[in-house]
Amino acid sequence: MSKNEKAKAKKEQAVGKVKKTAGEAVGNERLTAEGRAEEAIGDARQAKEKIKDIGRH
């Protein structure tokens, strides 16, 4: 996994988790949904990079 893409995935996952948690804490459904979406994008990016790594070995 390229370091840049790995860092980007981790950042998206972390920011998404914070937004989701904050949204749930204050009852803001839009913020919760944004957090879930951002977290999912980070998960997908990480999975894509792992697949690329497997293909290189």
Structure explained in plain terms:
With 57 residues, this protein is mainly alpha-helical. Helix content is 91%, strand content 0%. The chain is built from two helices and no strands. α1 (3-26) runs antiparallel to α2. The model has no long low-confidence stretch (mean pLDDT 93).
Briefly say what this structure is.
The chain has 57 residues and is mainly alpha-helical.
Features:
57 residues, mainly alpha
Topology:
Layout (H helix, E strand, L loop, with lengths): L2 H24 L2 H28 L1
Helix pairs in contact: 1-2
Computed CA radius of gyration, to the nearest angstrom: 13 Å
Which structural class is indicated by helix and strand composition? Answer: mainly alpha
Amount of beta strand = under 5%
Helix and strand string, N-terminal first? HH
Largest sheet: none
Average of the residue pLDDT scores: 93
Assign an overall shape. Answer: elongated
Number of helices: 2
Low-confidence blocks of residues: none
Instruction: Give the tally of β-strands.
Output: 0
Cα distance spanning the termini: 12 Å
Q: Tell me roughly what share of residues is in helical segments.
A: over 70%
